[in-house]
Amino acid sequence: MRSETGFDPALYDRFPTKGERPRHEEAQLKRIWCAPKGWEYLTVVNNNYVGIYYLATAFLFFLLAGLLALVMRVQLAAPLMEVLPQATYNQVFTMHGTVMMFLFAVPMVEAAGVLLLPQMLAARDLPFPRLSAYAFWAYAVGGLAFFASLFVGLAPDGGWFMYPPLTSKSYSPGINTDFWLLGIGFIEISAIAGAIEIIVGVLRTRAPGMSLDKMPIFAWAMLVFAVMIVIAFPSVILATLLLEIERAFNWPFFDATRGGDPLLWQHLFWFFGHPEVYIIFLPAAGMMSMIVPTIARTELVGYRLIVLAMVATGFISFGVWAHHMFATGLPPMTAGFFSAASMAVSVPAGIQVFSWIATFAIGKPRFNTPGLFAMGSVVIFVTGGLTGVMVALVPFDWQVHDTYFIVAHLHYVLIGGMVFPLFAAMYYWTPMVSRTALSERLGKWVFGLMFVGMNVAFMPMHLAGLMGMPRRIYTYLPGTGWDLPNLISTIGAFMLALGIALFLIDMGRRFRLAPGGGNAGNTYGAGTLEWLPTELYSTRSIPVVKSREPLWDDPGLSDDVEEGRYFLPNSATGRRETIVTSPLLAEPQYLQIMPGPSPWPFAAAILTAGFFLALTVQAYTFAWVSGALATIAVLRWLWDTDQPVDQGDVDIGAGIRVPTYVTGPASHGWWAMVILMIVMGMIFAMALFSLAFLWGNQPGFWTKPLPLTEGLAIAAGYVGVVFAAWATRRLHRRGNSWATIPVILAAVAALLLTWLDARAWLALLPPDTSGQSAAVNAILCLQAMVGAIAVLMAGYLGWRAVKNLVSQTRNNTLDLTCLFVGYAGAQGLVGTLFARAIGA
Amino acid sequence: MRTWLILLGGMLVWALHFFGLYAIAEIAPHRAAVAALTLVCLGADVWFLRIISRLRRDDPFAAWRRSVAGAGAGLSLLAVAWQALPALMAG
Fold first, then answer.
1. Which residues of A touch B61 (CB under 8 A)?
2. CATH 1.20.210.10 region(s) of chain A?
3. B55: domain range?
4. How many independent structural domains does chain B possess?
5. Chain B contacts of A311, Cβ < 8 Å?
6. Do B25 and A331 touch (CB under 8 A)?
7. Which residues of A449-471 are buried (b: 16+ CB within 10 A; e: fewer)?
8. Are the Cβ atoms of A312 and B11 closer than 8 angstroms?
9. pLDDT at B58
10. For helices A176-204 and A129-148, what crossing angle results, to 10°?
11. Alpha-carbon distance A680 to A683, whole Å?
């Protein structure tokens, strides 16, 4: 095999090493990765704890949203029921959908990633444990505050996709909608933080030898999932920002009477909203592809095709957003290819389903609880997939749009595609984190009740929908023919709930958390690395991976790993650390020193939540104080993470030495910054799309923009910013002590250039004039925000330079600041020219 | 980067075609433009398949990369043709 980094693969032959390892090594690892006590449970950052917190919180939201569903089902069980008033019903269905999609589904799979990936990849932890902790606390605090709005009658009531003009200030004057817009925008930031962690984790912290073709399929699924979040979520972040600005400051992005367009919201929302379905489905499919081979006791059929199917789903799911808008009167050509893509996306999903069926067919499947949930998932998901192909057809979609047929379809897809695999996963992986596995006998009851209950609840909704029952009605008249299907659905919903209640009882009886070892072990006889014996530091040593199911192919691997015969059997530097490997072939590159527990991620999350909540209730002073303190908390947390280490390079096992610090594109920090810039770039690109969309759809409101020639001086200034950022890195590498100065000045210049540009535009188009003026000023606001962040980063760099923490060899802070300031310049350049060019 | 381009090449061609179609439909809907874009993308897929067929497969990773990339380009070829048909008929 050729090398990716110059590492000699023959060195892998030194493992497993011979001879006894010193006894103190294991004690040292235990001391460094010790369990928290008392208040330390709030500051803990290990994936073993944060992953469990995350899973438990997401499951709590599943239960809460499920209770809301039961209340709705009681209200609809018979005509003219009066369990819920109409206005409360609107809040309940909005919260049910919102909580299930934003607070349960995405966080749940992200949580599964945080918990499972380090074990599966045999890393000590994911590369940014403090970011994981921040993402969790931000989500938990923000989510609970958001849910609490229901108890004070302030919950949003515009449906989970919040279409304007219903959600505009005119039709939704209260702060209910603001709770949704600011709350969801905030929670999505947490999702993006988790996605960055997962991408860098999967690509850079795999066990040596675990090349892409040997990567567990769940890791592939999480990689595609996280990339999709990075591409899709910026769209909804921008959309919520624009609608909130419209409501707060009267900038008419979505007001058709002033040159805005409510359909712009639908484009922005569904560009996120449909990929969201696959964002939820793919990790669940990844779990299925891990569970099915173990249950069937054979290798997964079609590993390569499944990888391709996941990647193809990731792409094609971005080409189907407008199928939610067929009823808005799309041009025939647009409707045509969106319909074709909507049908095409079922092909990669089908590849995965056929692979699971084939694996079951050629193996010797066990009909235990995870196996039953996996098989049940296939049946339910395929049913939902078939109705999905039906609604991909434009004429059929016109007939059933906004009816209960769609409610049935989406629940079959989401429950079959995500909830059942999740239950399979909870039964399957519980022995990995608990001292005892869950009950098989009770588990079969849980499965039976959930499977039958689900079908009894949702199958009749197809009929109700075909009979014309619209979504979101809080009651209906007798004699419509909807009575019986609704009664049956309500009975089914309670059966489903009973199954989940039994599951909770089983969890209460048998689940005993064992993060420090002593778990139930490899109950199902799986072949992947998460079933190696683990402690809080993950595995005792990090194995060399030679196949996709190493535990099946090397029965002695567990013992050798446990005896420290592989990589990193100790702590080479006396700190928390993991091996960073190359992205394709997973060759060891360097040793990452990992940050330990800290109160700052927790404090930053609480303060960030405070900022958004205070904005929602219009307590602006409190909001700005919270925001400023959150920024200080983030900077304080970062301060510890780029510290000097005494050892320049260390032995990570069998005499193989790697550096303890690298800079530039090889470092994991660089990767995270590049992904963050892609997120910022996507937000910006969607803002440019918004301006172009309004130009194309509201030409009557268009004002001739500022002349392009007048923007050239500003554009040249932005080019200078990019150049200064690039030059700073080069000057610093040459050892110039003043090299940080150009990038600091460039960051300030980027902000000044935005101010100059804004001044010119404000003289021509105040932001509340038209859709065009609102969109242009939104672009300028985004640019100002990026400029402000660049100045903050530059200030932080300057302070570290003053403290002598930026040296020629240890300069990641400088690298990342240069990268971001360069990005700020490039974004400013594009924005300056685009706003002047469009509609000129 | 080269490996990622090889693995994702087919899908990138599909994305280019899809968003190209969207731009044509929104800005200047015309059958000829759809046909031209489709031919270019089909040509790109065929060209890409030829490149992939010449890639080495002397170790497990190279063989895996070649087969995933080839299947991706094949899928892209079909998907591009599939989504162009309704646009051509409706144009």
1. 1, 211-213, 584-585
2. 295-521
3. 2-90
4. 1
5. 7-8, 11, 72
6. yes
7. bbbebbbbbbbbbbbbbeeebee
8. yes
9. 86
10. 160
11. 5
Q: Are A574 and A28 in contact (CB under 8 A)?
A: yes
- A126 has which bridge partners? none
The parts of chain A modelled with pLDDT lower than 70 are 1, 516
What is the DSSP annotation of B3-60? HHHHHHHHHHHHHHHHHHHHHHHHH---HHHHHHHHHHHHHHHHHHHHHHHTS--SSH
> Closest by alpha carbon to A268, among A325, A335, A226, A224?
A325
Spell out the CATH class of A295-521. Answer: mainly alpha
Query: Residue A739 has what pLDDT?
Result: 84
Q: Which of A2, A304, A316 sits opposite B59 (nearest CB)?
A: A2
- Among residues A755, A740, A749, the alpha carbon closest in space to that of A722 is found at A749
B89 touches chain A (CB under 8 A): yes
Closest CA to A564 of A118, A23, A21, A27: A21
- Three-state DSSP state, A8: coil
Q: Do A212 and B8 make contact, defined as CB atoms within 8 angstroms?
A: no
Nearest-angstrom CA–CA distance, A523 and A443: 15
CB A25 within 8 A of CB A569: yes
Strand pairing partners for A649? A659
Neighbours of A556 (CB within 10 A): 9
Interface contacts (A, B; CB < 8 Å): 91
The two structure tokens encoding residue A380 = 């339910």
- Which one, of A571, A547, A487, lies nearest residue A12 by Cα? A547
- A2 chain-B contacts, CB cut-off 8 A: 59, 62
Cβ–Cβ < 8 Å for A126, A205: yes
Torsion of CA A291, A296, A300, A302, to 10 degrees: -120
Query: Which residue ranges does chain A devote to CATH 1.20.120.80?
Result: 666-837
Q: Does B1 touch chain A (CB under 8 A)?
A: no
Q: What is the pLDDT of residue B91?
A: 57
Nearest CB to B86 within list A304, A305, A336? A336
Give how far the C-alpha of residue A180 lies from the chain's centroid of Cα atoms, to the nearest Å: 18
Contact between B60 and B77 under an 8 Å Cβ cutoff? The reply is: no
Token output for A672: 């995270």
Helix (H, G, I), strand (E, B) or coil at A820: helix
Residue type, A826: A
User: pLDDT by residue (tens digit) across A350-397?
Assistant: 999 999 999 999 999 999 999 999 999 999 999 999 999 899 888 999
> Do the chains contact at B71 and A304, CB–CB below 8 Å?
yes
Neighbours of B20 (CB within 10 A): 17
Chain CA centroid to CA A612, Å: 19
Report the Cα A295 to chain-centroid distance in Å: 28
Is the peptide bond between A173 and the residue preceding it cis, with omega within 30 degrees of 0?
no
What confidence score (pLDDT) does residue A513 get? 84
- Cα A296 from chain centroid (whole Å): 30
Closest CA to A661 of A589, A566, A571: A589
Contacting residues for A781 by C-beta, under 8 A, at least 6 apart:
none
Give pLDDT, residue A1. Answer: 60
**Cα separation, B15 vs A62, whole angstroms:** 35
Query: Could you give the ipTM of this predicted complex?
Result: 0.95
Q: Where are the alpha helices (DSSP H) in A163-319?
A: 176-204, 217-249, 262-296, 303-316
In this complex, is the C-beta atom of B29 within 8 Å of any C-beta atom belonging to chain A?
yes
Say how far apart CA A814 and CA A743 lie, in whole Å.
Answer: 9
pLDDT, residue A439, reads 95
- Residue A520 CA to residue A185 CA, distance in Å, equals 40
DSSP class of A538:
B
CATH superfamily of A666-837: Cytochrome c oxidase, subunit III, four-helix bundle (1.20.120.80)
**Is the sign of the CA dihedral A652, A655, A661, A664 positive or negative?**
negative
- Cα–Cα distance, A342 to A32 (Å, whole number): 51
